[in-house]
What does this fold into?
Amino acid sequence: MPASPVTGKGIRRGGKQYEAIHQALAAAALHALATDGYDGVIHATVAEGAGVSERTAFRHYPTKLELAVAGIQQLPTYDGWLDGPGSCADRLRRGLAIGAQHPEWVVPVIAACVAQRHLEPELLRAVRQHVLEPRTESMRRFVEEGRRSGELRKTLTAESMAALDLGLFLRSATGMFALGRGSARVERLFAESWPLLAAPGHEDD
It folds into this structure.
């Protein structure tokens, strides 16, 4: 017999309540992965964090790997953060302000996935496909437009900007660079990154 579209009493697969639970479990899985590593991605723990039963967690994500990958997919991709009107400096500040609303989880998540790279290579593959590559693509559009307008260095590439981005968060995660919060975080990150991105004559934008 085909699987029932109903995953629980009154909850139909694909419905709003189902999707809300699916999202809550993924968010709880991200939190577990970032704070306790892959070993911490346990259905019972994640279910508790999402406010649902362990059985429901297994219905949505039957395996530990699926649960962890769903968590990874919750990390922001920067899609649209650097787009829109304004100068490159304006757009960078706007993107940093959006980022300031998100927890700094990319470094601990990558560390957790690197630690499991031989046992669960799909974790790092998910990080590349769902996080790092989309972020680099967003930066590629930003860099290409900025180089054409003369606001960004001609030698700047999306890959070097992405390396700078990840490097700043790595320094923060290791205690070498205090990001701060809110507007202070935005200005601190802008002050660190913009001089390395700006073309001569645009350093003070």
In short: The first helix runs from residue 16 to 36. The beta strands are 6-8, 11-12. The chain has a mean pLDDT of 92.
